[in-house]
Structure formats: structure tokens, C-alpha cells
Amino acid sequence: ASVVPNKAHIQNLADTYNLNYDFTRLCKNPSLNEIILTQLNNLAQEYNLAQNEKVKNIHLHHELFKDRQDAKNRFNNNS
After folding, report:
1. How many structural domains are present in the chain?
2. What residues contact residue 36 under an 8 Å CB cut-off, 6+ apart?
3. Shortest CA distance to 74 belongs to which of 20, 34, 52, 65?
4. Domain of life here (predicted)?
5. Cβ-count burial of 62 within 10 angstroms (0-12 exposed, 13-18 middle, 19+ buried)?
6. 3 state DSSP class of 3
7. What is the secondary structure of 3-72 as a DSSP string?
8. Rounded to two decimals, what is the model's pTM?
9. How far apart are CA 30 and CA 5, in angstroms?
């Protein structure tokens, strides 16, 4: 799953786990990625999600997606 995390939540997690990086580097940090994936899996278990509904992997993005980043626009360029 591609995720654009909430900056405040990421900073709180970083403070909790002593990860002293800026937001962009935090989004690329494998340790933080694993922490968030674990949290998501804990929620999935708490809400009794089926195995096929659980997140297997995540990729954190530091920027919100924009129209110009849309794959259709990127790969279907007729100009």
C-alpha cells in the first residue's frame, strides 16, 4: 500500500523511537516503515480482518499525490 502519513503522527512515532530525522527521511526509514506496518497489522487483528484484507507491505510517501503525478497522465502522454 502507498501511504502519505500524517506529519504529526510520524513525528510522535519518531520521538517515541528516538528517530531524529526530517519528515522526508522518516518516510524512507525502514525501521519506521516496519513500526507502522506492525501498527496496521495490530489494527487488522483487532478488527478481525480476513487474511486477504491485511496490508502486506507499505511504502511511505512524503508528498501528497497530485494530478500531474497520476500514472495515466505519466504513461499515456499523447503530446
Report:
1. 1
2. 3, 5, 13, 58, 60
3. 65
4. Eukaryota
5. middle
6. strand
7. E---HHHHHHHHHHTT----HHHHHH-HHHHHHHHHHHHHHHHHTT--GGGS----EE-SS---GGG-HH
8. 0.74
9. 14
Contact 36, 3 (CB under 8 A): yes
DSSP conformational letter for 48:
T
The residue segments making up the domain with residue 8 are: 2-75
Q: How many CB atoms lie within 10 A of CB 27?
A: 21
